[in-house]
Amino acid sequence: MATMVREPASPVKDDHYDLLHTLQMSLEHVWKMENYIADADARGDKELATWFRGIQDDHRKMGEQGKKLLKARLQQEKV
């Protein structure tokens, strides 16, 4: 029987940690896709490059949403 390995719980117990971490991951994926797109383009694989661009666009949108959420939540704390 296979045992599932769970990621350890975060040592950071901040309300914004998950939001910040996910935002960072989304923006990092936007950056990483640049390399994958360039590789696919260099090989002439338009289908794969287009697929990577779609992923990049999705992560860019998620990153923008995450930044708006974070901004709103930080502004609420100021009040």
Number of strands: 0
**How do the SSEs run, as a string of H and E?**
HH
DSSP helix fraction:
over 70%
The number of helical runs is: 2
Strand portion: under 5%
Q: What is the radius of gyration?
A: 17 Å
| Average residue pLDDT | 88
Shape: flat
What class do helices, strands and sheet pairing give? mainly alpha
Distance between the termini: 53 Å
Note poorly predicted spans: none
Q: Report the biggest beta sheet as strand number plus sense, adding barrel if it closes.
A: none
Description:
By secondary structure, the chain is mainly α. Helices cover 75% and strands 0% of the residues. It has helices spanning 17-42, 46-78.
Short summary:
This protein is mainly α.
Write the layout of secondary structure elements.
Layout: H1 17-42, H2 46-78
Describe this protein with a few key phrases.
79 residues, mainly alpha
